[in-house]
Design a protein that fits this description.
By secondary structure, this protein is of the alpha+beta class. The protein contains 8 helices and 20 strands. It has 4 domains: about 35 residues, no CATH class; about 130 residues, no CATH class; about 140 residues, Jelly Rolls (Sandwich), CATH 2.60.120.230; about 120 residues, Jelly Rolls, CATH 2.60.120. About 15% of the residues lie in helices and about 35% in strands.
Length: about 450
């Protein structure tokens, strides 16, 4: 016989179960208890940060993404942890410092944490490429702090080690208002700029526009400052080797049409370029060694090349400021020149990989201040080595992304004695059914070392 107390408890239990509720006291036995498994901190980072903002097409979603050879980083679920923990970064500046993508117990030496912080002051003035997510919305204060605490707790793959309420803190980590560079004082420099322009939703916009520098006399530039709105992949200034083939002034020449197809005429104009200045970071401030400066001829013009990425559903503006700070001619001891070392004699057989090498030697001692590279779409890897001397064969530059080549500055210039030089070692992958040679179109190829140097 069931007494009234037991009957009352049973009725309450049936009622609660009917509502879909689980009651731990009075409605279950020990064998019926459900174990609650807490989501690990890393799994939350994966689901709330990496999957929606990083593991996207064209970024870190697949080894088949065009940019994978450059960063070698996959951030999809089931792969990201192994790619992050104690793995040396591919980013040149971070790699030079021996910085890991994630160094357990040390967020300040973890590139992953730095890349999520858009404020340049966060890195004590150091630049580690574009902040992430490129072309997206910066993470919130809570999300970034969650990542920092996870790293400081040892960056475990399992276990909950960070307060999950941080992920609900949506305080913006970066103020999206933009303030450009103050123009140099009269007589101390020149400012060039790209006024605000629209970058359409889910679109990569890259264009060129030729502008006059505005100098009537020769000037000598020993410091270059660049500042851009968020979302920029890179900005470059190009000079024109052939001054008889200049594009129209103040006319935007987009690389991609609105439907994503390539603008052939713009691509052709790119063949009359030699690197003059540029950066892949949103802020840039480079000073040449004392007494060294780039010369700008009277009445010069340059091609301004801006590349922005918009992965959001709304349009945003791009904008670029460039300050060219000058010194009097009397202070110039070394005129900095642009390296322009091209290999035009190569043959790439159909359907195979080919490695080409070419040596370039100098008849005078020089100091190399910067290196970058240029190929077309069949260029898979570009290596620059030193030729001759005690450092013979040393690799000083590597690039695996033909569209966005690395720009490597050398705080300690590379000294090359007379008779020494540089070697370009380029791997091409000709995936077509035809032989490819040097040429100016996108279906031909190139292999050029660009850079800065001055004679010692």
């Amino acid at each position: 016989m069931i007494n009234d107390g037991v009957m009352k408890q049973w009725s309450q239990c049936v009622y609660l179960i009917g509502l879909g509720l689980i009651v731990a006291n009075g409605c279950t036995t020990k064998s019926d208890e459900i174990e609650v498994i807490e989501t690990s901190s890393f799994d939350l980072i994966q689901s709330r940060i990496l999957t929606p903002t990083c593991a996207t097409t064209g970024c870190h979603a697949s080894e088949q993404d065009g940019s994978f050879r450059q960063h070698s980083l996959l951030l999809t679920a089931g792969n990201s942890y192994e790619y992050l923990i104690n793995k040396l970064s591919q980013q040149p500046e971070a790699r030079a410092e021996g910085m890991a993508r994630v160094k357990p117990f040390n967020s300040s030496e973890s590139l992953f944490y730095h890349k999520l912080n858009w404020e340049a002051s966060h890195h004590s003035g150091k630049q580690f490429g574009s902040p992430m997510p490129l072309g997206g919305i910066p993470l919130s204060v809570g999300q970034i702090e969650f990542v920092r605490r996870w790293i400081e707790a040892g960056a475990p793959k399992t276990g909950s080690v960070v307060d999950t309420t941080l992920l609900n803190d949506t305080t913006p980590s970066y103020e999206l208002t933009f303030e450009g560079l103050t123009p140099p004082a009269p007589g101390t420099g020149i400012q060039m700029k790209l006024d605000p322009f629209t970058v359409s939703p889910t679109f990569e916009r890259e264009f060129f526009v030729r502008k006059m520098v505005g100098n009537t006399n020769e000037v000598f530039v020993n410091r270059i400052q660049i500042k851009m709105r968020p979302g920029s992949h890179h900005f470059l200034l190009y000079d024109f080797p052939d001054k008889n083939k200049l594009p129209l002034l103040n006319t935007i020449r987009d690389i991609r049409n609105t439907d994503g197809t390539q603008n052939y005429e713009t691509f052709l104009s790119m063949q009359n370029h030699v690197f003059w200045a540029g950066t892949q970071t949103p802020t840039y401030d480079y000073t040449f060694p004392t007494g060294a400066a780039l010369r700008i001829a009277p009445g010069a013009s340059y091609d301004l090349n801006s590349h922005y990425v918009n992965k959001t559903s709304q349009p945003f503006n791009g904008e670029v400021y460039v300050n060219l700070l000058t010194i009097p001619k009397s202070e110039v001891k070394h005129v900095v020149n642009s390296l322009d070392l091209g290999n035009t004699q190569f043959v790439l057989p159909a359907g195979q990989k080919t490695k080409t090498t070419k040596s370039f030697t100098f008849d005078k001692a020089i100091k190399v201040l910067m290196l970058t590279s240029h190929t077309h779409k069949f260029g898979e890897k570009f290596v620059i080595k030193i030729k001759g001397g005690a450092r013979n064969g040393e690799i000083v530059y590597e690039n695996t992304d033909w569209e966005h080549p690395s720009i490597k500055n050398f705080p300690t210039p590379i000294f090359l004695s007379a008779g020494e030089g540089l070697v370009s070692e380029i791997t091409y992958n000709n995936t077509t059914t035809r032989t490819i040679r040097f040429g100016l179109t996108s279906e031909d190829e190139m292999g050029i070392i660009f850079g800065y140097y001055y004679e010692e």
